[in-house]
């Protein structure tokens, strides 16, 4: 983090904004010898908000921890098994939402509890939209879809939102796998943001 005086920050604002956007650099702005503000990039800010939301939601945090354990134990579903589970539950994802194994850059692995949350508890239109997200944009370019979380305990974790739902996932670039650890309602979905 670079410290800069408020007058200098005012004169250099376009350059500072460009630096936060392109390099991720953070600037601490000092006024009258005291910290007054911090300038950080939008991605970093979004990551902080998502991190706070996840850490403030004990149910989702617990679901994530259970999902990590299930993935470690091999208790997972792939995209085809997830599609089958949705069809068996009367939530046919349709041909447009079925996974295209050749086109995907990553393979999808979903912890059993996350898959069951999607199949059994998410409202049908939202479930179909989430299935489309998981088997399309998420496996094609997970970093573009997700927000990297910003806590040491949550390193290498990402989160994305669709409607009133949150998806928590990890990316294994070596094996080219996206591991979905939790799917559930966003506790902050209807929060009053003033």
CATH topology of the largest domain: YaeB-like fold
State mean pLDDT (0 to 100 scale): 87
Helical content class? 40-55%
Q: Count the strands?
A: 9
**What characteristic shape results from the CA principal axes?**
elongated
Low-pLDDT parts are 96-102
* Count of discrete domains: 2
Biggest β-sheet strands, sense, barrel: 6 strands, mixed
Count of helical segments?
Answer: 10
User: Strands of the biggest beta sheet: in what spatial order?
Assistant: 4-5-9-8-7-6
The H-level CATH homologous superfamily of the largest domain, spelled out, is: RelE-like
Q: What fraction strand?
A: 15-25%
N-end to C-end Cα span? 28 Å
- The CATH class label of the largest domain is Alpha Beta
H and E order: EHHEEHHEHHEHHHHEEEE
- CATH architecture of the largest domain, by name, is 2-Layer Sandwich
Query: Which structural class best describes the helix and strand composition?
Result: alpha+beta
Please compute the radius of gyration using only Cα atoms: 19 Å
Task: Give an overview in words.
It is a single chain. 31% of the residues are buried. Mean pLDDT is 87; it is low at 96-102. This protein has a six-stranded mixed β-sheet with strand order 4-5-9-8-7-6, sandwiched between helices. Strands 1-2-3 form a three-stranded mixed β-sheet. It contains ten helices and nine strands. It folds into two domains: 2-40, YefM-like domain (YefM-like fold, 3-Layer(aba) Sandwich), CATH 3.40.1620; 44-185, RelE-like (YaeB-like fold), CATH 3.30.2310. It has 194 residues and is an alpha+beta fold. The longest helix has 16 residues, at 58-73. It has helices at 6-11, 13-23, 42-55, 58-73, 79-88, 94-97, 112-121, 124-135, 137-140, 142-145, and strands at residues 2-5, 27-31, 34-39, 76-78, 107-111, 147-148, 157-162, 165-172, 177-185. The chain starts with a strand and ends in a 9-residue tail after the last strand.
